[in-house]
Amino acid sequence: MDLSIVHIVFWLIAGLASFSFSIGNARVWTSICVGFVLILLAEVIPAAVPLLPGLQLPQVQALGYISGTVAIMVITHGFQEYYMFSRTLEVEGEKLHVYLGVLAVLVASMIFILINPTPTSETLRTINIVENSCWVFLSVINIDTIRKIYQAVKDTPISKGFVAFMFVFGFIFLWKGAALYIQVYDLDMIAEFFPVRYAVSVYVHEFGNLLTSISIGGTFLLLARLLR
Prior knowledge:
mainly alpha, 80% helix
C-alpha cells in the first residue's frame, strides 16, 4: 500500500500546526516547534521524489536527510530547555535567535553538500542511517525528559499536552526504529529470505510515520486549545 500522498498531506498539516503554534506562543516553545516544522523537509522531500521534478537530485535528497538530523537535535534541545524552564521559570534568548540559528545550520549543510562530490546511493544510505539512529536514540531521551516535565507541570492544564508528546515520540521510535532495523540488517536486499520480518518492518515504518504526523498535528492543536 503506497501511503506517500497520505504522508505528505498529514506532514503538511503537522508542519503548519507546529509553525502556527510557534508564532503565537512563548519563546520556550520555539525550538520544539521549529524542529517539528523541519520534519517537513526531511519527510515531504523524500516522499515527493517520484511526484515533483528536481527532487531526484542526490544533493536535494541528502539535504532532506540532514534536515531530519537537525530537526531531532533542535527538538531535543527544545525539550531540555523547557525542562529547565519548568524548574526555574527562566528562559534565555529570543525567538529570532532560534530561527536564525537553525537557518544558519541548514545553509551550512547546503554549502557542505554542494562543495563535496555528488552523493552516491551508498552515501545517501549512510546519511539516512545516521538520521534514523539520531531519531531512535534521542526519542528515548526525549520521552524521559518529557516525563520529567510532566511531573513538574502535572497540576496544570497543559500537562495533557506533554502526555500527548510522549505518545508522539513512542510513534517516532516505532517509525524510525523500523527503518533503522531494515537498513542495518539490509532486509530490503534479502527480503526473499525473511519475507515476514521484512513485511512487518515495512508496515511498522509506514504506519508509524502516519501515526507520528497525525499525533504531532493533534498535539499542537490540543496545546493551542489548552493555552487559550
